[in-house]
Amino acid sequence: MDVKNLIENLKVDLTCFICLCYFTDPVIVKCGHTFCKECLLSCWKEDQKPITCPTCKAIVIFGDFLSNRRLQNLAIIGKMIRPHLLQSISDLTICEKHGKEETLFCEEDHRLLCGPCSLMREHEEHTVLPLEKAAGQCMEKFQAIWNTLKSKKKEVQIEMEWEKMNEEQWKVEGQTLKDLVVSEYEKMHQFLLEEEEIQLQRLDKEQVKDNLAKVEESKAKMTQQIYSLQTAMSEIEKKFEMLPIEILLDGNSTLERYDQPLLQNSVSASPEWTMYPIPGMTEMLLNFHREITLDSKTANSDLILSEDLKSVEYVSVPQNVPNNPEIFAFVLHVLATQSFTSGKHYWEVEVGNKTEWEVGICKEPIRRKGNGRKLPGDTCTLVAFEAGNDFRLHYSYHDVYANQPFHKVGIFLDYERGHIAFYNATDGTLIYSPPNDAFQGPLCPCFSVCIPKGRNTSGLLRICTRGI
Question: Which of 11, 33, 244, 388 has CA atoms 20 to 30 A from the CA of 57?
Answer without folding.
Answer: 11
